[in-house]
Design goal:
Largest sheet: 5 strands, antiparallel
Helix content: 40-55%
Keywords: Membrane, Transmembrane, Transmembrane helix
Number of strands: 8
CATH topology of one domain: Immunoglobulin-like
Shape: elongated
Distance between the termini: 28 Å
Number of helices: 7
CATH architecture of one domain: Sandwich
CATH class of one domain: Mainly Beta
Oligomer: single chain
Strand content: 15-25%
Structural class: alpha+beta
Order of helices and strands: HHHHHEEEEEEEEHH
Radius of gyration: 27 Å
Low-confidence stretches: 250-260
Amino acid sequence: KNRDEEETRGKLWRVMVLLGVAAAILMIPPSSILWELLPELRFIQFPWRWMGILAVPYAFFGAAAMARARVRWFWVSVGILAAAGTATFLVRKAWWDSQDIPVLEHAIAGGQGFDGTDEYDPITDDHTDLPAKAPQVEILPATDAQASRPQAGIRLVLWTAEEKELRVTSPRPVWLAIRLLDYPAWRVLVNGRPVKPQSRETTAQMILPLPGGTNRIELTFVRTLDRAVGSLLSAVSTLALVAAFWGVPLDGFRKGASTG
């Protein structure tokens, strides 16, 4: 039993060392080649964000060192004081805006939405050109020179974060502007047929050309290939970590699969 515990502990230590080394390497200049070859890393934006990952092995090895120290109570006290001092410094010196969250909650609850940031916009969008307090759906004039908007009936059937459905009835063809940016994950169906939305020159706001009559518009935020692959990698990594934590060798899984 002691031998099994030692092997399990050794594997856990190796995992933590590997995690710490990987996080540290990704924060130094020589790792720039990895940031270029692995495009998904760009979404992290700042290498110092790996400090959050580095905190896991730091806490693990810190606790292990305290557990083995002769004067354990002293090192535990030092750790608590260091954590409390750091937290106090961050709360007092860091920039905080207590109104951010209430303002966002009010904007979302009121259906108004909020002003996002450039790094999360579609490539063709400049969010400063988007109209403020725009309606969820509106009919646009047929041409830029035309001031009046065609008459049309709009009925919202469903409007959630990932699913939207509406009915538009008009005696003639119209242009429908939806308060939604054309992200690649949005699937748009008009009368059951897939449609590629159009947009203005400097925005990625969805604009749909609709024929005359009654049209059913369905919008669904689907899972794209990169999200599916990411979920698969996360699941495999989780299983590997669980196997390493419990001391189950991966080759045992392979043998079991081959014999089964």
